[in-house]
Design a protein that fits this description.
Blueprint (H helix, E strand, L loop, with lengths): L20 H4 L12 H8 L9 H4 L7 H9 L3 H9 L5 H7 L21 H15 L14 E5 L3 H12 L3 E5 L8 H4 L8 H14 L2 E3 L10 H7 L2 E4 L5 E2 L12 E3 H8 L19 E5 L3 H12 L4 E6 L10 H10 L2 E4 L1 E8 L5 E14 L5 E13 L3 E4 L3 E2 L3 H5 L24 E3 L2 H4 L4 H22 L2
Parallel strand pairs: 1-2, 1-4, 2-3, 4-15, 6-13, 7-8, 7-13, 8-9
Antiparallel strand pairs: 5-14, 10-11, 11-12
Helix pairs in contact: 2-4, 4-5, 4-7, 5-7, 6-7, 8-17, 12-13, 13-14
């Protein structure tokens, strides 16, 4: 590592340049421009290169954080990207959408007195530098071991699992139900936060390493788990949480009401924002209400603005402090003009008289005692209501696990929420079948799904080796 020492706090945390709010609400280009080389080196120079590196403990993907940052500091940008990919198959993705502020950056030693190192933005810089240079991935030097594994689901968990297993010498085939690889990365996260080109590049790198991707292959419909298990030595299920939740309130069946999944999938994966160049149309509502306070809700709010909405209301039943969305996403939403209606619970969607949305009726809430998760529970204020005039509603209150595998494969056990039950090694009740990501843990973050995929890959390797003894 570099011997260059910088006095802690002598260099302020570097701000990544981004599109101005007034400009970016008119396009779907990425908001963040990225660091230039000089700024990246300056930010990397802030890292103290701690011996115990507490930042590492906060990363589910086990990224070699001080090591890749030191390479950036020494202007070895391609080496930094390679170092990232030693443990993480999706660094360009993680640099953009992972909650670094609550994971690797929180334990950063600098944060005790100063702002932490911008680990996520440096990861984004190194990965983007590699993509800009179009550097090919290092060839897999591990000889093939003669064994084959199948990955069900081409989202972040499946991609991470595939990336680790291909480097262990396995033949790897990924089976994806949709026409494009990426899962929530391509159907759920908008272009302005994570471009499909970024995801495609990472996937192409895995193809060059030897991973085979079979799209338009919904396992449980066109092929069974039993058939796959006959073809492979082990399987990993990473089919995510793609079943939307609704509120069961009056008016949810009106025209102009969407699940966040439908709304974002039409716009992101099916490029509805480019209509008529793309075949998929989408109604460009004038006044939208988005129900929920997570990252998906922020994505829906900001998408609606870019599709021309004059007013977008984010309706959330707690305060901003309790919002599960990343602070950065809430900040960007505010800058762009999203109107936050907090401590409001939707109780009915109003019909305009023609079967379309005409408004959203809400009830005022106050925060009561903490619930079982420690969050203060919203309590209705009797007789206090407010109705907002809108012509579209997006329900973004969460998702349930994709039920297809569990329904078609009774040997795989699920809990009361429909999550696949796994043991500490990510093994399901069906021998040789492992699972991870949202399908087993419930809707969570991309980085946790990646961590599950990596852990499952290690367990699958041990299982196959033991079975073949």
């Amino acid at each position: 590592m570099s011997d260059v020492k910088v006095k802690p706090g002598s260099i302020p945390r570097q701000h990544m340049p981004e599109q101005k709010p007034a400009d970016r609400v008119k396009n779907f280009d990425e908001v963040l421009f990225g660091f230039d080389e000089e700024t990246a080196v300056l930010e990397a120079s802030r890292c103290l290169q701690c011996k115990n590196a507490p930042c590492k403990a906060g990363c589910p993907a086990r990224v070699l954080i001080p090591e890749f940052i030191d390479l950036i500091r020494n202007r070895k940008f391609l080496d930094a990207a390679k170092k990232l990919k030693e443990t993480n198959s999706l660094p360009a993705v993680c640099g953009r959408v992972c909650p670094q502020e609550t994971q690797c950056e929180t334990p950063c030693v600098l944060s005790k007195k100063f702002e932490p190192v911008s680990i996520g933005k440096l990861e984004m810089f190194a990965a983007d530098f590699e993509r800009k240079m179009r550097a090919l991935p290092e060839p897999v030097s591990v000889p093939k071991n003669g064994h084959s594994v199948g990955i069900v689901g081409g989202g972040p968990a499946g991609i991470a699992c595939a990336g680790d297993l291909i480097r262990m010498g396995y033949d790897v085939i990924v089976y994806e139900a949709l026409h494009q690889i990426g899962g929530v990365l391509v159907y759920g996260i908008p272009e302005f936060r994570l471009s499909n080109d970024t995801v495609d590049y990472e996937v192409e790198n895995l193809k060059k390493l030897g991973v085979v991707f079979r799209t338009n292959t919904p396992v449980g419909l066109v092929i069974s788990m039993e058939e796959l298990l006959a073809k492979h030595d082990a399987l990993f299920v990473g089919t995510g949480a793609g079943l939307p939740q609704f509120l069961s309130i009056d008016g949810e069946n009106l025209n102009g009401v969407y699940s966040a999944n439908e709304y974002l999938t039409r716009v992101n994966l099916m490029s509805a924002y480019l209509f008529p160049e793309a075949d998929t149309p989408v109604i460009r509502h004038k006044r939208m209400a988005v129900l929920g306070g997570g990252n998906v809700a922020m994505d829906a709010c900001r998408t609606a603005l870019r599709l021309g909405a004059e007013a977008v209301y984010c309706i959330y039943r707690r305060t901003e402090v309790e919002m599960p969305a990343r602070v950065e996403e809430v900040h960007h939403a505010k800058e762009e003009g999203v109107i936050f209606k907090l401590l409001r619970a939707p109780i009915a969607i109003v019909d305009n008289g023609n079967g379309f949305v005409g408004g959203i009726k809400t009830q005022e809430m106050v925060l009561g005692e903490p619930d079982e998760k420690g969050r203060r529970k919203p309590v209705p204020v009797e007789g206090s209501y407010e109705t907002f005039e809108v012509d579209g509603v997006v329900v973004a209150i969460g998702n349930n696990p994709n039920p297809l595998i569990a329904r078609s494969t009774p040997e795989i056990q699920t809990n009361k929420w429909g999550n696949i039950i796994v043991d500490e090694k990510h093994m399901t009740a069906m021998p040789g079948v492992f699972a991870g990501g949202d399908i087993s843990r419930g809707a969570a973050t991309v980085i946790l799904a990646i961590g599950d995929g990596k852990d499952a890959a290690t367990s699958m390797d041990a299982y196959i080796k033991q079975k073949k003894q």
